[in-house]
């Protein structure tokens, strides 16, 4: 490994080692924001969460999961009816097709049960690596990867823990080399909670940030704000 790359990796690992316990203390209740009582419910909720908010999905699934309790019920649901049931989550036609196809695949290949490996989940219609990571980490407690959403992407870049601006797969690989595997699922939740509460996309609350001391970007944000304020006065 080149010396410069090795130094960067060591620095990033040290940063994570400092940040992780602080975030754990700041967000002791951090967990998956999608309401679910089973792996199947989490799988469906995660598919619905694409281009939608977790809050909206939770509103929809409250009735949806009462109506469709099994993979068979979802597979047998008429396309038009399922579309109507999930309409408010957006992209409802494609999501309904994906959910029905996924349910059929569970029945045909897994006895109607959600599988517990990345390979088997990834093979299901409508299920990508992000969705598989969510289900494995939160429904089964199996950490095979790190869920990378918009919050995780933003914070990983602001904390200088990745060299990739938007490529979720590459960002995941960078983070997996830095975060202890036992904390992979929790790490995503912690960054999501912090991203919503403090490190927002616009106007991050750097002055209130518990990990400001270890954030390379925060100091620049504060300096820019001071410079703009000085220019106005």
Structure description:
There is one protein chain. The protein has 2 domains: 3-30 and 147-224, Helix-hairpin-Helix base-excision DNA repair enzymes (C-terminal) (Endonuclease Iii, domain 2), CATH 1.10.1670.10; 39-139, Hypothetical protein, domain 2 (Endonuclease III, domain 1). Helices cover 63% and strands 0% of the residues. The protein starts with a helix and ends with a helix. By secondary structure, the protein is mainly alpha-helical. It has helices spanning 3-26, 39-48, 54-67, 71-76, 79-86, 92-110, 118-122, 129-139, 150-158, 168-176, 184-197, 216-232. The protein is built from 12 helices and no strands. The model has no long low-confidence stretch (mean pLDDT 95). Helix 2 (39-48) packs antiparallel against helix 8 (129-139), helix 5 (79-86) crosses helix 6 (92-110) and helix 9 (150-158) crosses helix 11 (184-197). The longest helix has 24 residues, at 3-26. The radius of gyration is 20 Å and the shape is globular.
Give the helix/strand class.
Answer: mainly alpha
CATH architecture annotation of the largest domain = Orthogonal Bundle
Helix tally equals 12
Helical fraction equals: 55-70%
Largest sheet: none
Q: How many domain regions?
A: 2
Q: What is the mean pLDDT? A: 95
Order of helices and strands: HHHHHHHHHHHH
Name of the level-1 CATH class of the largest domain: Mainly Alpha
Number of strands: 0
Tell me the Rg in angstroms: 20 Å
Per CATH, the superfamily of the largest domain is Helix-hairpin-Helix base-excision DNA repair enzymes (C-terminal)
The proportion of strand residues reads: under 5%
Q: What best-fitting shape do the alpha-carbon axes yield?
A: globular
Spans of at least 5 consecutive residues with low confidence: none
How far the N terminus sits from the C terminus, by CA atoms, comes to: 50 Å
Oligomer: single chain
């Amino acid at each position: 490994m080149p010396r410069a790359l090795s130094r960067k990796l060591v620095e990033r690992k040290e940063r994570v080692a400092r940040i992780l316990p602080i975030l754990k203390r700041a967000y002791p209740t951090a967990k998956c924001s999608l309401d679910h009582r089973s792996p199947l419910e989490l799988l469906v909720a995660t598919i619905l969460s694409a281009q939608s908010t977790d809050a909206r999905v939770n509103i929809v699934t409250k009735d949806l999961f009462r109506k469709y309790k099994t993979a068979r019920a979802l597979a047998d649901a008429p396309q038009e009816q399922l579309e109507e049931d999930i309409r408010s989550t957006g992209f409802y036609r494609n999501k309904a097709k994906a959910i029905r196809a996924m349910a059929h695949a569970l029945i045909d290949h897994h006895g109607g049960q959600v599988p517990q490996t990345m390979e088997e989940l990834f093979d299901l219609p409508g299920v990508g690596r992000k969705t598989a990571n969510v289900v494995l980490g939160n429904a089964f407690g199996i950490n095979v990867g790190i869920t990378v959403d918009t919050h995780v992407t933003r914070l990983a870049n602001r904390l200088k823990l990745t060299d990739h601006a938007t490529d979720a797969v590459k960002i995941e690989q960078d983070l997996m080399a830095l975060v202890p595997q036992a904390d992979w699922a929790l790490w995503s939740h912690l960054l999501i909670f912090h991203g919503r509460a403090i490190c927002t996309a616009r106007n991050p609350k750097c002055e209130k940030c518990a990990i400001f001391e270890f954030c390379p970007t925060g100091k620049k944000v504060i300096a820019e704000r001071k410079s703009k304020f000085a220019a106005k006065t």
